[in-house]
Amino acid sequence: MRNVxxxxxxxxxxxxxxxxxxxxxxxxxxxxxAGKAVGLTAASEAEAPARLVLPRLTECHVHLDKCHTxxxxxxxxGDLIAAIEAQAADRQNWxxxxxxxxAARGLDELISAGCGAIRSHVDWGAEISPLAPAPSWKVLCExxxxxxxxxxxxxxxxxxxDDMADPEVADVIARQVASAxxxxxxxxxxxxxxxxxxxxxxxxxxxxxLALDFHVDEGLKPGLDGLDIIADEAMRTGFQGPVxxxxxxxxxxxxxxxxxxxxEKLARAGVAVACLPSSNLxxxxxxxxxxxxxxxxxxxxxxxxxxxxxxxxDNVRDAFCPLGRHDPLHSLALAALAAHLDPPYGQxxxxxxxxxxxxxxxxxxxVDGAAxxxxxxxxxxxxxxxxxxxxxxxxxxxxxxxxxx
Length: 405
Ligand SMILES: [Zn+2]
Prior knowledge:
Layout: E1 4-7, H1 14-17, E2 21-22, E3 25-33, E4 36-41, E5 51-55, E6 57-62, H2 80-90, H3 96-112, E7 115-123, H4 135-146, E8 152-160, H5 161-164, H6 167-179, E9 183-188, H7 194-208, E10 212-216, H8 226-237, E11 243-247, H9 256-269, E12 271-275, H10 277-283, H11 299-304, E13 309-311, H12 328-338, H13 354-359, E14 375-378, H14 383-388, E15 394-395, H15 396-404
C-alpha cells in the first residue's frame, strides 16, 4: 500500500517497523506479507497526500437501547436526573421493533465509523422486578448474534447500586448476565447502598467471571465517592477481571493534593476510566445561564498518573445527549477540545484503540503484525486531519483490492 502513515502510538515495536519519522507517525509504503502488516519501506513517488493506517477502532461506552429517541421527545433539557425522567417516559415506545431498529442504526453507524469492538450498556430491570432483564436485553442479545461477523459487541447490564446492595439480587442478576456472555454494569451516584453495591458487584463478578463497568460519580455535587470505593475494593479483592469506570466527573471537585493519591491508586489497581465528553458537557454544571464548569473527568491528571484513560461516545440523540455521533474519533476530538489535550494527537489514539480494547478485556490490536482485515485506511494525512473528521474509513483489505485492479 503506497504512501501511508502509521501513528507511533499504535505500533508495539515502532523501531522495527520503519525509519521515516514524520511528527507522531512513521511514513512510507506499507509492506504486507501473508496477510499481515510487517513494515514500512521508503515511500515511492507520491502523487497524492499520505493516508493514515489504524487498527479498527473500539467504542467503549454507548447506550444502544436509548439512542435515536430524541426526535419524538418534547421539552427535554436539564440535568442528569431530568434526563433519566425524560428517558423513562419514552419507554412506552420501546417495542421490540423500535428497540431493534434504533440499536441496529447505532451499530451500523459505529461500524461505518470504523469500530471493530463495541460495548453498549443496556438498562437492566423489568418494571415488575430488578431481578429480571428489561425486554430490551433480549433484543440486544439477538442483535449481537446477528452482528457477530461485523464487530465484537459486548452488552453491559446497567443495574442500580441500591439493587446490587442486596447480595441475593446481585447474585441472581450476575448469573443471568453471565449466561448471556455479558458485562456487569452498575450505576453509582449518591445511593445509600453504594458501598454494599460495589462490594457485591466485585463478589459476584469474581464468582461468575464477569468484567465490571461502572457509571460512577456522574455529577459535580460534593461528596461523591464511588470511584474511591471502587479503587479500594479492586485493591482489597485483587480482582483480576477488567474494571472500567465511566464519567468520574466529581474528580473536578478534588484538589491536586487529594487527586494524586486517588489517581495512583486507580493506576495500581488497574482500573480504567472513560471520559464521556458529549453527555457530560450537556448535562453537567447546569445553572440558570451559560455553564462555566465542564463536567469531564480529570483526563490529563489521570493520564499523568498512568491510569488507562479512554474516550467514549455515551448517549447519541436521546434525553441524555440530544446531539452526538456514533464515532469514537468524534468523541476523542471533543474530549481533546474540552479537556485541553494538545497535539501531537497520535499519543491519544490508544484511548479509542489499544487501551480501550485492553479495558474491555480484549487483546490490543497494534498495526505491526495485524491482519489486514483488522486495519483501516483513513483519508487523512496527519493526526489533526484524522481527529477533525475526514469521512468514513476504508477497510484496508478493500483498498488493496482497489490498488491491485
Ligand atoms: Zn453511559
